[in-house]
Design a protein that fits this description.
The structure is a single chain. This protein is α/β, with parallel strands linked by helices and 298 residues long. The protein folds into 2 domains: 3-259, Spore Coat Polysaccharide Biosynthesis Protein SpsA, Chain A (Alpha-Beta Complex), CATH 3.90.550; 260-298, no CATH class. It contains 11 helices and 13 strands. The strands form 3 sheets. A 9-stranded mixed sheet has the order 5-4-1-6-11-8-12-10-9. Helix 3 packs antiparallel against helix 4 and helix 10 crosses helix 11. The protein is globular. It starts with a strand and ends with a helix.
């Protein structure tokens, strides 16, 4: 298994006006674009054939993973090897390909746009709004579960029941594996009173290629869009020999939601504090800043 799909066609309206001309995926997490962190996660799990599903105004994504000869030459002439290595890192991470979604018909439609590139192979899908800490190896674990159990694999986290309406929600049953459950049913953004659990799907999927056949006949669901949740619900009820069955990894590690402005700021602060080059000075300043806020409030 070598292929991963990263849907990146969204408009990023929650971050306007910053995303008027800049793709939301290029917003920096300290000094690295969020999209690069997602590609690095895929590569760390052994997936080095990356297909990005893009739309209009996404050219900066292609530029970021391409060579910048002029900049590289300038840095080489100055002997700035450290910055040169950082600039070249994104170019050499993986083989990155692009296809346009065209009409914004939902995540399920975006994934369906990858069918010709993927073929009849299992593949991963990584959503750029969800960053998984590199120390937690969620995707690697999901690939192991797919290898062991077949079918498709999703990632679930426990959330406050009052917020389950923000997520796809799963009804599950236990397996013999401590961190793995079998998915029986899925509901996209249910009312909290009707939710079958407080287990929410986050933006990591390992999908059997049968998903393309299912998506081809999946009608628009919530919001008038083709939902991957609806396709997975169908797969969950199909026999394993037909590519059916859906399992889930229960994830309790570190996840950063960069699709929300407040969580995006929290992510930057948290990760900056952990960096060797920035953490000590930044943490010291942050303590003083918070103390000053407390004095002002008093």
């Amino acid at each position: 298994m070598t292929k991963a799909v990263i849907p990146a066609a969204g408009l990023g309206t929650r971050f306007l006006p910053a995303t008027k001309a800049t793709p939301k995926e290029m917003l920096p997490v300290v000094d690295v674009p969020a999209i690069q962190l997602v590609v690095e996660e895929a590569v760390a799990s052994g997936l080095d054939d990356i297909l990005m599903i893009t739309g209009r105004n996404k050219r900066p994504l292609e530029d970021h993973f391409d060579r910048n000869w002029e900049l590289e030459h300038l840095l080489a002439e100055k002997g700035d090897e450290e910055r040169l290595a950082k600039v070249q890192r994104s170019t050499h991470l993986a083989d990155v390909f692009y296809v346009r979604q065209g009409d914004p018909k939902g995540l399920g439609h975006a994934i369906a746009c990858s069918a010709d590139h993927i073929g009849r192979e299992p593949f991963a899908v990584l959503l750029g709004d969800d960053l998984i800490d590199a120390r937690d190896h969620l995707l690697t674990r999901m690939l192991e579960v797919r290898e062991q159990l077949g079918g498709s694999v999703v990632a679930l986290i426990e959330v406050d029941p009052d917020t389950i309406n923000l997520y796809g929600c799963a009804s599950v049953g236990a397996t013999d594996i401590e961190d793995v459950v079998r998915v029986h049913d899925l509901v996209e953004k249910p009312d909290p009173a009707d939710a079958p659990s407080n287990l929410a799907i986050i933006g990591r999927y390992v999908l059997d290629p049968m998903v393309f056949d299912v998506l081809a006949t999946t009608p628009p669901g919530r919001g008038g869009e083709i939902q991957i949740t609806d396709a997975l619900k169908t797969l969950a009820g199909m026999p394993a020999e037909q590519g059916g069955g859906v399992h889930a990894v229960l994830f309790r590690g570190r996840r950063y939601d960069t699709g929300d402005r407040l969580d995006y700021l929290r992510t930057i602060v948290r990760l900056a504090c952990e960096r060797d080059d920035l953490g000590p000075d930044f943490t010291s300043w942050l303590r003083e800043f918070v103390a000053d806020l407390g004095e002002d409030a008093g």
